[in-house]
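During the no-cost extension, the postdoctoral fellow (Dr. R.K.) reprocessed legacy sequence entries with the updated structure-token encoder. One reprocessed record is reproduced below for audit purposes.
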Amino acid sequence: MNVEIISIAKKEKSLYDPLYKDLTKMISRFAIVKDTEIFSKDVTKAHTISPEASQKAYTKALEAYIGKDFCITLHPDGKLIDSFEFSKLLNDKMSVKFFIGGAYGFEKDFLDKSNAVISLGKITMSHKIAKVVLLEQIYRGFSILSNHPYHK
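Re-encoded structure tokens follow.
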């Protein structure tokens, strides 16, 4: 299986990189993980204009990725699910793409193109933390599907 995490984020080193690497290695028993970070000049410019302009820039940057494979978008107003429901999103898929938006979230049209829109919780977290939580849930989901004791 292939898993791709596509996010509106600047490509930069962070203290979370070793954790991303460890979680990706754990997931590699079940799937190949690709991490794509996008932060174009259009996104940078839109951030100086308005939240609406920013959302449009995110859609423009991500639209080439949406619609292919099974697409799951992370959004604060998305469905709150537990780890078992999360694992079902991974079950029997050849390829899954996860989308993490920018600071101003997604346009409704982008959300409507997703196969699923989920929330990691009601709290606000940085993209870097959201990616850690997502990677851990991906590993946990695969563990549940394979009856691995990690989940217990």
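The mean pLDDT is 93. Residues 11 and 112 are 27 Å apart (CA to CA). The remaining legacy entries will be reprocessed before the final report is submitted.
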